């Protein structure tokens, strides 16, 4: 082996010193990648009797919730049941939008329905995306409004690091949370709805003639574990919120950003075994205030303005780093597939053609019609505008921003039709950014080689009564 290596080095065009330097460089690259992946992880262990934090690691770092989102969907469902607005047997009708959600799902056809209890069981076991959307539409009128209700409820519970954009946790760069917030929600679910909390301990249920098994492998494996929820997207990694009750002590623990389902479960098991004996046997009473305040005033705090398009005399300003940091995680590249045996598979990228200019979709589009939803059997991936190279570099012009990605995209399309010659060599794209806890989407055209070129195009757009300003990417 040594002779072979010596022969290779002597015959190679690269001197030995160069090869050693390259090898060291590769070592640092691998180390950097490993460090980046490790930075995604977060965990917290909270004594559910006293509220004391027993363990914390990146607990306040922004993370994608994936299917942990459904915990809030169920919180609002339980609240509606407790107030008598719905019952276990109330029918949940599945719209075309709900039916077309990406797997995993229950598979109810458009116009079909199941009982509320069936929808709940499908969420806690199968993590059914279609059931979550259907419940959201039932309670909120539409999923967008329900997401606002979810965020408003999060604020009432003290979850100040969380914003929801859908009912199921499928990829949306504007949807984020923290490990601490998920622990708060886990505690609140047990404290506020003990009459319904038993659903989270369900390991399987019978749907028609089909036995549907759950994804939470710690149920039955670790003594005292009685819920709550798993979650996975490629961007989030493997997430898990667990509640433990051994009769004398109670814990809620959160692990986010696991590299696999098995490693995540093992980490959770280690945290439980280490910290459950340290939890208090005393204490009691609610740790999380019940969210019974005026829901209208709470909702008003998260309602977003229609547009924040610049005025004609607005000058270009430097884009703050925090403005464009949608999240500190990796690119979202896959739908929320809870089948953890095959979840590592790469999802195909979505290419959206445009008529006049190439449009790069930077954040996951909201599906506008049932026909479009049905046309895509695979999950629609989203791309993080911070980490992708598809955002045009150099100078761009911004024409609008909106709380809805679909509105920002529609503004791009409208602008293209109004000024096709001005934008003939430009690329339209949307960029998500966070402001005061709410996510907006900038509508921009990029590909301009200089500040003067961008301003020249902007001046031409203003002559067509299209407001804009130039900004460096």
Task: Give short descriptive properties of this protein.
18% strand; five-stranded mixed β-sheet; hydrolase; protease; alpha+beta; 14 helices; 14 strands; Beta-lactam/transpept-like; 34% helix
Report on this model:
It comes from Mesorhizobium australicum (strain HAMBI 3006 / LMG 24608 / WSM2073). Substrate binds at residue 229. Residues 389-473 form the SPOR domain. The chain is an alpha+beta fold. The strands form four sheets. Strands 2-1-9-8-7 form a five-stranded antiparallel β-sheet, sandwiched between helices. Strands 10-12-13-11-14 form a five-stranded mixed β-sheet. The protein folds into two domains: 42-300, 3-Layer(aba) Sandwich (Beta-lactamase); 321-472, Alpha-Beta Plaits (2-Layer Sandwich), CATH 3.30.70. The chain has 14 helices and 14 strands. The longest helix is centred in the N-terminal third of the chain and has 24 residues, at 16-39. Helix 6 crosses helix 7. Strand 12 and strand 13 form a beta hairpin. It is globular and about 70 Å long. Mean pLDDT is 75; it is low at 1-14, 25-39 and 293-392.
Order of helices and strands: HHEEHEHEHHHHEEEEEHHHEHEHEEHE
In this structure, how is the largest beta sheet organized? 5 strands, antiparallel
Structural class based on helices, strands and sheet pairing: alpha+beta
Shape: globular
CATH topology of the largest domain: Beta-lactamase
Overall mean pLDDT score? 75
CATH class value of the largest domain:
Alpha Beta
The count of strands amounts to 14
Give the terminus-to-terminus CA distance: 51 Å
Could you give me the name of the CATH homologous superfamily of the largest domain? DD-peptidase/beta-lactamase superfamily
The helicity comes to 25-40%
Instruction: Please compute the radius of gyration using only Cα atoms.
Output: 25 Å
What is the tally of helical segments?
14
Low-pLDDT segments, ≥5 res: 1-14, 25-39, 293-392
**Percent strand:** 15-25%
**Would you identify the CATH architecture of the largest domain?**
3-Layer(aba) Sandwich
- Number of self-contained structural domains: 2
Strand arrangement in the largest pleated sheet: 2-1-9-8-7
């Amino acid at each position: 082996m040594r002779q072979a290596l010596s022969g290779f080095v002597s015959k190679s065009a690269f001197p030995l010193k160069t090869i050693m330097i390259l090898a060291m460089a590769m070592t640092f690259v691998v180390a950097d990648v490993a460090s980046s992946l490790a930075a995604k992880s977060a965990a917290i262990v909270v004594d559910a009797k006293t509220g004391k934090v027993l363990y914390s690691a990146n607990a306040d770092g922004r993370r994608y919730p994936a299917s942990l989102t459904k915990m809030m969907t169920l919180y609002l469902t339980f609240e509606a049941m407790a107030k008598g607005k719905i019952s276990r047997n109330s029918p949940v009708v599945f719209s075309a939008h709900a039916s077309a959600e990406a797997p995993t799902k229950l598979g109810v056809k458009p116009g079909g329905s199941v009982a509320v209890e069936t929808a709940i069981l499908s969420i806690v076991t199968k993590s059914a995306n279609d059931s979550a959307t259907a419940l959201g539409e039932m309670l909120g009128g539409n999923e967008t409004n329900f997401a606002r209700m979810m965020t408003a409820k999060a604020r009432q519970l003290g979850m100040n690091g969380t914003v929801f954009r859908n009912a199921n946790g499928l990829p949306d760069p504007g949807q984020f949370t923290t490990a601490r917030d998920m622990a708060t929600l886990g505690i609140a679910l047990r404290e506020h709805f003990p009459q319904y909390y038993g659903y989270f301990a369900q390991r399987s249920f019978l749907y028609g003639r089909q036995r549907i098994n759950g994804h939470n492998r710690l149920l039955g494996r670790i003594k005292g574990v009685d819920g709550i929820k798993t979650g996975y997207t490629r961007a989030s990694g493997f997430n898990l919120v667990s509640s433990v009750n051994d009769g004398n002590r109670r814990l809620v623990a959160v692990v986010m950003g696991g590299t696999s389902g098995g490693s995540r479960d093992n980490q959770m098991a280690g945290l439980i075994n280490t910290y459950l004996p340290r939890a208090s046997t005393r204490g009691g009473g609610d740790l999380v205030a019940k969210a019974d305040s005026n829901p209208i005033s709470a909702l008003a705090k998260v309602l977003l303005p229609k547009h924040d398009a610049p005025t004609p005399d607005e000058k270009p300003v430097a884009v703050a780093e925090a403005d464009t940091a949608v999240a500190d995680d990796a690119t979202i590249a896959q739908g929320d597939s809870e089948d953890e045996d095959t979840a590592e598979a790469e999802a195909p990228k979505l290419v959206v053609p445009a008529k006049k200019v190439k449009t790069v979709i930077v954040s996951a589009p909201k599906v506008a019609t049932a026909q479009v939803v049905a046309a895509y059997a695979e999950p629609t991936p989203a791309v993080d505008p911070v980490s992708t190279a598809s955002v045009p570099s150099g100078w761009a012009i911004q024409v609008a921003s909106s709380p809805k990605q679909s509105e920002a995209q529609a503004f791009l399309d409208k602008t293209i039709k109004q000024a096709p010659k001005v934008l003939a060599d430009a690329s339209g794209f949307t960029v998500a950014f966070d402001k005061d806890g709410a996510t907006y989407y900038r509508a921009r055209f990029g590909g301009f080689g200089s500040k003067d070129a961008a301003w020249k195009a902007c001046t031409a757009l203003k002559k067509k009564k299209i407001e804009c300003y130039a900004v460096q990417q």
